[in-house]
Design goal:
By secondary structure, the protein is α+β, with helices and mostly antiparallel strands. It has 38 helices and 27 strands. Helix 4 packs antiparallel against helix 5, helix 9 runs antiparallel to helix 10 and helix 14 packs antiparallel against helix 17. The radius of gyration is 61 Å and the shape is elongated.
């Protein structure tokens, strides 16, 4: 339990603890010496009363704090009087005189307590209550008369007392009477009587009784035991303090919610007793006078008879009020009832509220043909037989009240009566052919007044039943009007046909939906607006004679618009010929033309590519499966081509995805032109396409189709004022009927493998699938997974091949060539793993490592073999490296970290950089050129180079492909390339020189620089240094000027 809960419990029970502790101390004062009669102890108990009231104010926080602080003042004055009275003899060794200071303190108690009580009375009764005031006055006068006769009057006539002593003696009983009057006024109002009220009333009664007994003892000279009177005054203290501590003390000031004063038997007895006080006193005074005694007794008897009569009237008035309250509550329930069933339930509840819950009530409806109990206090309803209905019908002219024995036996069982019950039948008058009746079964006789009340309640029930019936009828009419409005404005067509198929009803919406008027349709056959293909189905449904069942049947058909167009409708057919309100076949037709069009659009989107409009993978696979099944049945063979655009990612990255989509659309257009109309072209997503070619007999025929596709893609396309070369690699898979026919997935997978091999061997080509390709593809996939490990494990190595001046064999520089020393496969050539690095993106970190290593090696070579014109270091850049945003930063970082002079670094690019965004490539090369490096065009003459491209690219060197060096047939083209380089002031380097005759021929054509196996094979760093150290004449430039070439 929390601390807050503990404190709350202590506060709620503080009054009980207070009474318990002070009760023990009181018992000690009264019965246990040496504390018996102890003056300080009684003063302490009086002080606790003051402290308890203060604590109660702090704990309970009443709103009428002024009243309670007046109580604190009064109690403190009383305590002060006790303190003076009980301390005076101890201090002065003499009795307290009369009158004394203590009397003054005691008398000032009354104004304080009386003012506080009046404040509480005022808060509890904010409005005037004359009845309660009169009752309080009667009781107060009766008690005051006793006080006058026995206390006040004797003190007035007491001889030997001064007028001050007499006044003080009279003031005590007078103050008690006034304080009691305030308490009585508090008691007789309609406010709440909480426990604190009874504690407070008990305190005042103790004070009045003790003061009265003490004064009587003094007047009669019988005063003997002071402790008896002290007990009364102590209880006065304790009860008042407990009332303040009790949590209900706040209820003493709460205004009454119901100001009606009820004349209960107890109150009537108290008032009668108060009125008999005066005759009783007079009777006691005239015991010796018989005539007066007879007069007094007769008057008292007459008064009691009047009081008894008044009590009867009060009881009768109470019953009337109770019936009125029951009728009012039943009326409220009946008004709130919204339906016929709720009215019946409210009627049963109202009757039981009026008569008592022990009554059994039935509400029956009696018609011309039958009768039933629609509601009962026992729950549920049941049907009544004709005899009971006839017996109830005789009461329609008025109420029938009869005993159990007078009810026919057959009626008893039908109404479920019990022996000894009185039956009361009350007809209810409503505007209906059905007569409702209240049947009340009571174990006792029903009084006539209750019968009148039941008839009044019956009138209210009748009105409620009429209202419920009218409300139901109004609701029905509103529903019908709403239904007519809905039908009139509905987009659905509601049609009723007879057994011949003629329209007997047509909703007005047909004019808005199909353009026909209602008059055009009604009376004619419905199938005249039905499409010819759907008319047999409608005739079959009509001829089914309701076989479709009441739940109806739904079918789709086409209806002809007045303008001749055909619309799709979904029709629900329901046979209601058995329904007397319809007598026909109902067709509920809904226009679903837009939905059908949307479904067709969705179906098209589900099987077609949204960018190109070609078939997608799902549709293509389905057509391949069907083609395979036809091939199994002896139809011509088929071929599947898997097409992948080369370097399409370059287009997306450089020009954006919108430009990429335009390239895809152009490729799709060219593919459709390149294939036959019977072939299927599909896009699988990204840059992947597929073609299904049917009716091919062998590989050459499929190859011809692939060649046509490649030829169609050779022509560059202009995208955003830039030329793009949409090259592609094609894999072909043929179906051989002599072996097991694969499924579509396997066919596509084989074509994909062939495409992969074509891309690996030479982009822009095609390959026909062979079973051995799987092994090579698996090997290639293994290499891809091992390549990342090779970079991390340091398995990559650079080899260097010298670049020399022809005839003189002077070394001008070296070209860095990447090698992979695989731990199990040995040295893997670049052509096997460089394309893999391109595909996976590993070319970026790999190229960064090559740049850093080559630049550091170039510095070592220059330091070891110093020359006037430093030896150059050539490094190859791939297309993907050039497109990387970090390439310029990577080159700059390699130069700065190694310290290599930028002019000694030659970056070699291929002609494929011109395939994508030419402007982007030129800008990127210009950024690299700005670092001070030189650029070389590698494999020149094998790609798409043209004079216009070459003039735009900031290259310094042309490196002829080895195919021009090894063939004597290309002498003219070789001479042209050398002449082109000279005209553009570009150095020309011949690659792949292996024979002295080749060197002589190239030198004769004017080519001065070359590289190849004739001079040196690629070698590692150590072998290169040994090679250079052993041939100092090769590295000595002499007096001849060095060339700008690498």
């Amino acid at each position: 339990m929390s601390f807050r809960e503990t404190c709350g419990n202590w506060r709620n029970h503080a009054w009980a603890w207070y009474l318990g502790v002070t009760g023990v101390l009181t018992a000690a004062y009264l019965f246990f010496p040496p504390l018996a009669g102890n003056g300080p102890l009684i003063n302490f108990l009086g002080l606790t009363g003051v402290v308890a009231i203060v604590a109660g104010i702090r704990i309970n926080k009443p709103k009428a704090r002024a009243a309670w602080w007046l109580f604190v003042l009064g109690q403190f004055l009383f305590f002060s009087g006790d303190l003076y009275t009980y301390s005076y003899p101890k201090l002065f060794h003499a009795d307290v005189g009369f009158p004394s200071l203590g009397d003054g303190l005691y008398l000032t108690v009354y104004p304080a307590l009386l003012a506080g009580m009046l404040l509480l009375v005022k808060r509890r009764n904010p409005r005037r209550d004359p009845a309660a005031l009169i009752d309080a006055a009667i009781l107060t006068i009766g008690v005051g008369l006793l006080s006058w006769v026995f206390l006040i009057s004797p003190n007035i006539h007491l001889s030997g007392l001064s007028w001050l002593a007499k006044s003080i003696s009279i003031a005590y009983p007078l103050g008690d009477v006034l304080l009691l009057a305030a308490a009585i006024r508090l008691a007789v109002d309609a406010g709440k009587r909480a426990p604190a009220f009874y504690l407070l009333a008990g305190s005042i009664v103790c004070l009045l009784a003790t003061d009265s007994g003490y004064n009587l003892a003094l007047l009669n000279g019988t005063y003997s035991n002071q402790l008896v009177y002290d007990a009364g005054w102590i209880l006065y203290y304790l009860f008042w303090g407990a009332a303040a501590l009790h949590p209900s003390m706040r209820a003493l000031e709460e205004p009454a919610t119901d100001l009606r004063t009820r004349l209960t038997p107890l109150r009537l007895s108290l008032l009668g007793g108060a009125c008999l006080i005066a005759p009783g006193i007079r009777f006691a005074q005239e015991l010796g006078n018989p005539d007066v005694l007879v007069l007094i007794i007769a008057s008292a008897f007459l008064f009691l008879l009047v009081v008894a009569r008044m009590a009867g009237l009060v009881r009768q008035e109470g019953r009337v009020v109770s019936r009125e309250r029951a009728l009012r509550g039943a009326g409220i329930d009946l008004v709130a009832a919204a339906s016929h069933d709720q009215v019946c339930e409210a009627a049963i509840a109202g009757v039981r509220r009026l008569l008592g819950n022990d009554q059994s009530v039935r509400l029956a409806l009696v018609g011309n043909d039958d009768a039933e109990v629609v509601a009962s206090s026992d729950g549920g309803g049941w049907q009544l037989d004709d005899s009971t209905a006839d017996w109830l019908s005789q009461t329609q002219v008025g109420s029938l009240r009869t005993s159990y024995d007078a009810v026919p036996a057959f009626v008893r069982g039908e109404l479920r009566l019990f022996a000894g019950e009185t039956v009361l039948v009350i007809p209810l008058s409503i505007r209906s052919e059905v007569q409702p009746m209240l049947v009340v079964c009571s174990p006792t006789s029903v009084q006539p007044a209750l019968v009148d009340s039941l008839e009044a309640l019956g009138a209210q029930i009748s009105l409620a039943l009429d209202g419920a019936s009218l409300a139901a009828d109004l609701h029905r009419r509103q529903s019908e009007a709403r239904f007519r409005s809905l039908v009139a404005h509905s987009s659905d067509l509601i049609t009723v046909l007879n057994a011949d198929g003629d329209v007997t009803y047509q909703s007005p919406s047909i004019e808005r939906v199909l353009g026909y008027s209602v008059a055009d349709v009604e009376g004619s056959r419905f199938d005249r607006i039905l499409s010819e293909t759907d008319r047999p189905r409608l005739r079959q449904l009509i001829a089914g004679n309701g076989s479709s069942g009441p739940d109806g049947h739904t079918f789709e058909c086409s209806l002809e618009h007045l303008d001749g167009t055909s619309l799709k409708f979904e029709v629900q057919h329901t046979d209601l010929r058995h329904d007397e309100h319809v007598r026909g076949i109902v067709l509920n037709s809904r226009d679903v033309s837009e939905r059908k069009a949307f479904e067709e659009q969705l179906a098209h989107q589900a099987f077609h590519d949204p960018v190109t409009g070609l078939a997608n993978r799902a549709l293509f696979s389905d057509r391949v499966e069907h083609a395979l099944m036809r091939a199994q049945r002896g139809f011509p063979d088929i071929a599947v081509m898997f097409i992948d655009l080369d370097d399409f990612k370059t287009v997306n990255d450089s020009l954006g995805h919108a430009a990429g989509d335009r390239v895809l659309q152009e490729v799709a257009r060219r593919l459709l032109i390149a294939v036959r109309p019977t072939d299927t072209v599909a896009r699988f997503g990204g840059d992947e396409f597929a073609v299904l070619v049917e009716g091919v007999s062998d590989s050459p025929e499929a190859a011809d189709a692939a060649a046509r596709i490649l030829q169609a893609l050779e022509i560059p396309t202009e995208i955003e004022s830039k030329q793009v070369f949409p090259r592609a690699s094609i894999g072909i898979c043929l179906v051989d009927r002599e072996i097991a026919v694969p499924d579509a997935a396997e066919l596509l997978r084989n074509a994909d493998v062939a495409m992969y091999m074509a891309k690996r061997d030479s982009k822009g080509s095609y390959r026909v699938f062979e079973p051995t390709m799987h092994e090579r593809v698996v090997e290639r996939l293994e290499l891809r997974s091992e390549l990342q490990h090779a970079i991390d494990a340091g398995e990559l190595e650079l080899h260097y091949q010298p670049v020399v001046r022809l005839q003189e064999h002077q070394i001008l520089g070296v070209e860095a060539l990447l090698r992979w020393n695989h731990p199990t496969r040995g040295t893997i050539p670049p052509l096997q793993f460089i394309p893999l690095a391109e595909e996976t993106g590993l070319i970026i970190p790999m190229g960064r490592w090559v740049l850093d290593t080559a630049c550091l090696e170039g510095v070592r070579i220059q330091n070891e073999f110093p020359r006037a014109e430093p030896l150059t270091m050539s490094v190859n850049l791939s297309v993907r490296q050039l497109q990387s945003d970090s390439i310029v930063a990577d080159v700059r970082c390699a130069l700065e970290q190694s310290g290599l002079d930028p002019s000694a670094l030659v970056l070699e690019i291929t002609e494929s950089v011109m395939m994508a965004d030419t402007d982007f490539a030129v800008q990127r090369l210009m950024d690299l050129k700005a670092l001070g490096i030189r650029l070389a065009m590698d494999d020149f003459g094998t790609g798409y180079s043209s004079l216009s491209y070459l003039s735009r690219f900031p290259v310094d060197i042309l490196k002829m492909d080895r195919s021009f060096v090894g063939s004597g047939e290309n002498v003219a083209l070789t001479s042209a390339i050398i002449a082109l380089g000279a005209s553009l002031d570009l150095d020309v380097v011949a690659e792949g020189i292996e024979l002295p005759e080749q060197e002589d021929s190239l030198h004769g054509l004017g080519c001065e620089i070359g590289q190849g196996f004739l001079f040196a094979r690629p070698m590692d760093s150590g072998a290169l240094f040994d090679f250079l150290s052993g041939r100092p004449e090769w590295t000595d430039a002499g007096s001849r000027p060095a060339s700008n070439a690498a």
